[in-house]
Specification:
The protein is mainly alpha-helical. It contains 27 helices and no strands. The longest helix is centred in the N-terminal third of the chain and has 67 residues. Keywords: Exocytosis. One of its GO terms (cellular component) is exocyst. Pfam families: Sec6 (PF06046).
Length: about 700
C-alpha cells in the first residue's frame, strides 16, 4: 500500500511540475486544483458504480445457487419416490402380459375384419380380373390384382408379427390366395407380348404401351417398398421382388436378337446373293427400328429408362454377335467382301448409323467395332488365299483335261498357264503399287491397309509354291529347261512385289516413328527423353501384326527394320542437333547411346528369335561411335577415330567432321589434321561388314567451311 502511495505522489508531482513550468501559470493554480478535484470525483463515482454492480451480480448468483440447490433436493426426492413406485409396480406389469397378447390379437383381428370384404370376395375379384386381362384392359386388371396382393400381404404380415414360425397359417393364407399368383403370371404374359411388339404397338396403339409402362412402374415402386419393409421387419411377401423392369429389358434384348437372326430368308444353295440380301434387310430393319425408337418410343417411357440408348446398345450387341457368327461360317471370297464392306463401311455410313435423323443421339465414332481386328485379319487372309487357290485351281483343271489327250498338249497348256500367270503377276505388281500410292495420300484409308499388304506379301509365297507344284505334277524333268526362263521371271516378279510390300509396311512403321526419331541427339534427349523406349514399343507392336508374314519375307523384314533403325539413329548423330559442352555431358550422352544400343539389340534379338539373324553387328556401330564421344583425353582422339574408320571404311570425311562437332571440344585445326591423316592411313574392313554410312548424308552448309 505504501508503494502505491509513493507512486501516486510521484505521479502527482510530475503532473504539477508539468503544469507550473512558467511564472504566469501560478495564477491558474486554483483553476488547476478545481479541475483535478472534478476528475477525482468522477473517477471515484465510476469506481463506486463498478463495485456496486459487482456486488449486485454476486448477490444474484448466490440467490440462484440457493434456488438450484433446493431444486436438486426436490428432484432427488422425486426420483426416490419414482424408484419406489416402480419397484412396487413390477409385479403388476408382469400380470398384464395376457392383456398385451390380447392387444396384439385384437390388432390382427382388426386387420382381418378390415380385409374381410376382400377375403370373402377373392374368388369374385379373381374372375373379374381374369375377364379384364382377356379384354385387354390391363390397367384395371392390375389395379384389382394389387388390391388382392395388398390384402394377402397385410394378413401374412400380421401373422408374421404374431408368430413368425407358424408356417401352417402362412401356407393356409398363401393357398387361399393361390389363384392370384396365376393372375400375376397371366398379366405378365400380356405385358411381355406388348413389349415384344413395342415398335409396332407404339405406332398403332401407343396408349396400350403407356399402360404397360405404368404397370411396370407401379410394380417397381411396390418392390422398393417391400424391400424397405424387409430391412425393418424381416418380412417380405412371396413373389417379391418381381423385377418386372429388369424382365422387360431382357425381353427387349431377346426380341432384338431374334429380329436380327430372323432376317436371313435364303441360303447359299437357294440364292448365291443370300448374304447381300441378308445384310441389306438387316440394314433396313435396324435403321427403321431406331428411327421409330427415337421419334416415338422415347416419348412413351420415363426419362430414367433411357430407352433409346438401351435399344441402341442392344441392336449393336446383337449385330456384333450376328456378324461374328457369319464370319465364323465357311464364306466364299465374294461373301467375305460383302461382309467386310458392310461391317467396315456400310454400318457407320449415312445409310445406317450415320443417318442424319439419328444424330446427335448416335455418334458413329463412339461405336465399338462389330468384329475384332483379329477376325478382320483372318477374313482378309482367307479372302486372299481363296483368290490365289481359285487362280491355281483353274489352271490345274485345264491341265487335267489336257493330260487326258496327250503329253504334248499338256506341256503346251502348262506353258500357256505360266505365261498367263506371268502377265497376271505384272498387273498384280502394278496394282499393289497403285494401292500403296492411294494409301499415302490419306493414311487413314483403307482401314485395313496393313492387313491387305501382309496378304499381298504372303500371296507371293503361295504363288511360288503353286508354280512349283504345277511343274512337279505336269512337267517331265527333261522338259524343265524349256520353262526355266519363264519360271525365273515369275520368281523375280514375285520377289519384287514382296520386297515392295515389305518396304511399304516398313514405311508405315517409320512414318509413325518420325517424331520420336527427331527427338534423338537433342537437348531433350540428353535430359531424359524416352524416345528410344517409344520406338522399341512401336516397332514391336507393328511386328506383332507382321508375325503373320510367311518365311522368308518375315526374316527379310526383320533384318531391314533393324538396319533402318540403326541408320536413322546414326543419321540423328550426323545431323549435329547437339554439341556437348563438357566432358560430363559427353560421358552422359555416350552412356545413353550405349544403353539405347542395348535396347535395340534386345528388341531385334527378340523379333529375330529362331531366324538366325545376327543382331549384334549393327548395334555395335552405335557403341563404337559412343566410345569416340566418351573419350576424355583429346590426344587419343585420332587413335579412337582411326579405329572407327578401320572397322567401317565407308565413313566419309563429312561423317568424321560431324562426329567431332557433336563432341564439342575439337578445334577446327584438330578436325582438319585428323581427317587429313586418316585419308593417308590403311583400312582393314571386316569382310562381313555391309556398308551403312553411304546411306547417311551430312548437312553440307558447315562442312566446306570446316575443312578450309
Amino acid at each position: 500500500m505504501e508503494e502505491t502511495d509513493r507512486e501516486a505522489v510521484a505521479t502527482a508531482v510530475q503532473r504539477v511540475a508539468g503544469m507550473l513550468q512558467r511564472p504566469d501559470q501560478l495564477d491558474k493554480v486554483e483553476q488547476y486544483r478545481r479541475r483535478e478535484a472534478r476528475k477525482k470525483a468522477s473517477v471515484e463515482a465510476r469506481l463506486k458504480a463498478a463495485i456496486q454492480s459487482q456486488l449486485d451480480g454476486v448477490r444474484t448468483g448466490l440467490s440462484q445457487l440457493h434456488n438450484a440447490l433446493n431444486d436438486v433436493k426436490d428432484i432427488q426426492q422425486s426420483l426416490i419416490d419414482v424408484n419406489k413406485d416402480w419397484r412396487q409396480s413390477i409385479n403388476t406389469i408382469e400380470n398384464l402380459k395376457d392383456v398385451k397378447d390380447a392387444v396384439v390379437q385384437h390388432s390382427q383381428l382388426a386387420a382381418a375384419v378390415e380385409n374381410l370384404k376382400n377375403i370373402f370376395s377373392v374368388p369374385e375379384i379373381v374372375r373379374e380380373t381374369q375377364d379384364l386381362i382377356e379384354r385387354g384392359e390391363l390397367l384395371q386388371a392390375h389395379r384389382k390384382l394389387m388390391d388382392l396382393e395388398c390384402s394377402r400381404d397385410n394378413l401374412m404380415y400380421e401373422q408374421y408379427r404374431m408368430d413368425s414360425k407358424n408356417t401352417h397359417d402362412m401356407n393356409l393364407i398363401h393357398t387361399y390366395f393361390g389363384d392370384m399368383q396365376k393372375l400375376s403370371e397371366e398379366l405378365a404374359k400380356q405385358l411381355w407380348m406388348v413389349v415384344q411388339r413395342s415398335l409396332v404397338t407404339v405406332r398403332r396403339d401407343p396408349t396400350l404401351l403407356v399402360s404397360v409402362v405404368r404397370i411396370i412402374e407401379r410394380e417397381e415402386k411396390t418392390d422398393r417398398r417391400m424391400l424397405d419393409r424387409k430391412k425393418q421387419t424381416g418380412f417380405i411377401p412371396p413373389g417379391r421382388p418381381k423385377k418386372w423392369k429388369e424382365k422387360m429389358f431382357n425381353i427387349l434384348e431377346r426380341t432384338v436378337s431374334t429380329r436380327i437372326e430372323g432376317t436371313q430368308a435364303d441360303t447359299r444353295e437357294s440364292d448365291k446373293m443370300w448374304l447381300v440380301r441378308h445384310l441389306e434387310i438387316i440394314r433396313k430393319y435396324v435403321l427403321d427400328d431406331l428411327l421409330v425408337a427415337k421419334t416415338l418410343l422415347d416419348q412413351r417411357f420415363p426419362p430414367h429408362y433411357d430407352i433409346f440408348n438401351r435399344l441402341l446398345n442392344m441392336y449393336h450387341q446383337a449385330l456384333s454377335t450376328r456378324m461374328q457368327e457369319l464370319a465364323a461360317e465357311d464364306l466364299e471370297a465374294n461373301e467375305i467382301v460383302s461382309l467386310l464392306t458392310w461391317v467396315l463401311n456400310t454400318y457407320k455410313s449415312t445409310e445406317m448409323m450415320g443417318n442424319s435423323e439419328l444424330s446427335p443421339e448416335v455418334d458413329v465414332n463412339s461405336l465399338n467395332p462389330l468384329i475384332s481386328q483379329n477376325v478382320v485379319d483372318q477374313l482378309l487372309s482367307k479372302y486372299m488365299s481363296t483368290l490365289t487357290v481359285k487362280l491355281v485351281q483353274m489352271f490345274e483343271q485345264n491341265l487335267q483335261v489336257a493330260a487326258q489327250i496327250n503329253e504334248e498338249l499338256k506341256t503346251k497348256v502348262l506353258l500357256l498357264c505360266l505365261q498367263q500367270m506371268n502377265s497376271f503377276l505384272t498387273r498384280y505388281k502394278d496394282e499393289a503399287q497403285l494401292y500403296k500410292e492411294e494409301h499415302l495420300k490419306n493414311r487413314q484409308y483403307p482401314q485395313c491397309y496393313v492387313q491387305y499388304m501382309i496378304a499381298v506379301i504372303n500371296n507371293c509365297q503361295t504363288f511360288k509354291e503353286s508354280i512349283i507344284s504345277l511343274k512337279r505334277k505336269y512337267l517331265k524333268i527333261e522338259m524343265e529347261d524349256t520353262l526355266s526362263s519363264s519360271h525365273t521371271s515369275m520368281d523375280a516378279t514375285l520377289d519384287i512385289i514382296a520386297k515392295e510390300g515389305c518396304s511399304s509396311l516398313l514405311d508405315e512403321v517409320f512414318m509413325d516413328l518420325e517424331p520420336h526419331l527427331n527427338e534423338l541427339m537433342t537437348k531433350k534427349w540428353l535430359m531424359g527423353s524416352n524416345a528410344v523406349g517409344t520406338i522399341c514399343v512401336t516397332v514391336e507392336d507393328y511386328f506383332n501384326d507382321f508375325a503373320k508374314i510367311k518365311k522368308p519375307y518375315k526374316k527379310t523384314m526383320t533384318i531391314e527394320a533393324h538396319r533402318r533403325v540403326v541408320v536413322e539413329y546414326i543419321r540423328a548423330i550426323m545431323l549435329k542437333r547437339i554439341s556437348f559442352k563438357n566432358a560430363e555431358e559427353r560421358k552422359e550422352g555416350a552412356e545413353r547411346m550405349i544403353k539405347e544400343a542395348e535396347q535395340f539389340r534386345f528388341l531385334f534379338k527378340k523379333l529375330a528369335a529362331g531366324s538366325g539373324e545376327d543382331t549384334e553387328g549393327l548395334c555395335d556401330i552405335i557403341e563404337a561411335i559412343a566410345e569416340v564421344i566418351k573419350l576424355t583425353d583429346p590426344s587419343l582422339l585420332y587413335l579412337e577415330v582411326s579405329t572407327l574408320v578401320s572397322k567401317y571404311p565407308d565413313i566419309r570425311d563429312d561423317h568424321i567432321a560431324a562426329l567431332l562437332t557433336v563432341r564439342g571440344d575439337a578445334s577446327r585445326d584438330m578436325k582438319q589434321t585428323i581427317i587429313e591423316t586418316l585419308d593417308q592411313g590403311p583400312s582393314q574392313p571386316n569382310p562381313n561388314y555391309v556398308p551403312i554410312f553411304k546411306e547417311i548424308t551430312v548437312p553440307t552448309l558447315t562442312v566446306p567451311k570446316l575443312l578450309k
